Amino acid sequence: MRDKIPCLTLKEIYGSDYLQDLLKNKDSEVLTSGFHKKNISNPYLDGYLISANLNDIRLTYQEWKITSPFKIRVDHHTPLIKLQFELLGQSAYEGDDHQQIIIPSNHYQFIYNLTTHGFLNYSTHRKVLDIHLPYSYLEELLGSQGFSKLGVKALINKTNMTLFKSPLIISTDQELLIDQLTSHNYKADFAYDFLRCKANELILSAFVGANNALHQSPWSNQDIAILNAVRDYLKNNYQQDFHLQDLAKMFGINEYKLKNGFKALFSDTVFGYIRKMRLTVAHQMLLETPLEIKEIAYLTGFKYSHHFTKVYFDHFNKLPKESRKPIKLK
Fold first, then answer.
1. CATH code of the domain occupying 221-323
2. I need a labelling partner for 253 at 20 to 30 A (CA). Which of 24, 210, 266, 320 fits?
3. H/E segment holding residue 58
4. Which residues of the chain are in CATH 1.10.10.60 domains?
5. What fold characterizes domain 2-213?
6. What is the largest CA-CA distance in the chain?
7. What is the pLDDT of residues 187-211, one digit of tens each?
8. What is the pLDDT of residue 63?
9. Crossing angle (nearest 10°) for helices 221-236 and 244-251
10. 200 vs 115, which has greater pLDDT?
């Protein structure tokens, strides 16, 4: 059954064997946000790719709607060094040497391969952010923020394949950073500086998270699976009012594990996560819709517009009306 899944080349999927060359094509679009954009359409998927070169750092974000399962043959003869944030869907790599890298939805992983020869398997819709960077830059960045050389070596052993012990859960703050990276409205040099700053924040957060994960987690795999399911539910139902007791009953977990496990895994409380989800969606609605502020407040789960204004200001350090794009007169 597995052999029936078509095996494609990067060129068949993207139109080029190298993603950095893909964005140099005439049909790629240069965005004012600092990204280049390329639409992707073939019998297996529809989507797009945006990429930004920031000197030592290269950001690549992709959204795919997969119409038919497939696998891709990958052969890199030069070192592949990146952080991969799998926001939706799953990435499954199997090397010719039978090494495997599985990154589930809502998880991230660090990858350091001297050479890469194998297959990537895809069967579900996907959203993914990759941050490519040289090892020397990563080592210098971590060192500048207090990581000792021994601490860096504990996380990164320069062998043929280096990974964190296991894929790590993407935190609420990381979700917010990724959203800021991919949907900001800055332009020109400021856009470039903004992307570079946020990318560095995301890189540091990933290695701080990995460092913390070196310590034994008190939560079982079953607890983690349930807490992931809770977060997915909250992500899709953030407008509703919740009580911890009701959520605990809904997912068959006690309140202590729900409260403390959620905080430990996602670096945020249940209600802090809901608030950030509401504010993130409200921010996008302010940018992209003509709806009144009080209506946006209501649609995102805030009962009173004055409370929304206060919470929004505390989070973004500006009033909701200051996030509005100026209306262009015809």
1. 1.10.10.60
2. 210
3. strand 57-66
4. 221-323
5. Jelly Rolls (2.60.120)
6. 61
7. 889 999 999 999 999 999 988 877 7
8. 94
9. 120
10. 200
